[in-house]
Amino acid sequence: MRTGTQHVDVATAELETALRGGPFHVALRAAITARGLPLQRVQHHLSRYGVKVGVTSLSYWQQGARRPQRPESLRAVRALEEILQLPDESLIRLLAEAEARSDPERPTGRSYRALMEASGVLERLLTELESPPLDGGLHTLGHHERVRIGARRELLARESHHIVRAHRDGVDRYVAIHHGDPGCAPDRTTVRALENCRTGRVRWHRDTGVLVAELLFDTRLRAGETFLFRYAFEDGTAGASSEYVRGFGFAGGQYALQVHFTETALPVRCHRFTQHSAAAPRSGRQELALSGRHRSVHLVEPRVRSGIVGIGWDWE
Prior knowledge:
It is built from 7 helices and 13 strands. It is α+β, with helices and mostly antiparallel strands. It has 2 domains: 3-102, no CATH class; 136-314, Immunoglobulin-like (Sandwich). Strands 4-7-2-1-9-12 form a 6-stranded mixed sheet, with no helix packed on it. Strand 5 and strand 6 (210-221) form a beta hairpin. The chain starts with a helix and ends with a strand.
């Protein structure tokens, strides 16, 4: 009898078909079936990669009830490609295609795949800086960010003013992240420590436009202490910018974003939006009126939630 062999052949053929055409949940289910792994074993293997995902979430993913969206979930997808012996980027590609179908209006420069590639690069750069896990021992109480758009419609600079509270002893730095617009040159982007900090190590990746920089404090904070610091990134190396987004891995304090435009280059309309994650469709769109005197728009989140918030604008 060849029943067992036939079953394996069928499962393998179904997996190959699913990996070529998707969708993601069908490919994931086919891969798990082909490897003969119960979800509890998949979860166990993921934990060995340092990734925590519940059996319920895995079940939802393979049923198509949910898609991996959070950074931890996206790391799990990369680990699953290894655990299930799949080609590199095979599941990630299917997620990117699903995102493109759900949000066809998103600019190609900020596509899901581009954000995923930047996410992988960011992890490597943070490792180079020996960046502490999670939030680096700091809780954000307030964050005011000013973005300046130049006469060529480029992202000229952005300045951040942080108010933080340490939740463990010995915190003496903050790692700032800048993700430039498509075509930017992170090696020509300048980091400026403006108040209560100084610039430490800086690392960048040219192809993705990601730059990370240490901002060193002049003191070691003790748990419960608050601290204020200010820094800026001066860019201006890319083409026309059409949006600015800010991602939050954790719930936190107040966030305010201002986008200032040059008088000779004003957009025709502006709007704010939110997004549960890089893989989720955008929602919460709200038109923003451009201030005549200050040529700016802004948004305020009294208490941020995990996810993405941003401002977009149209030039014509």
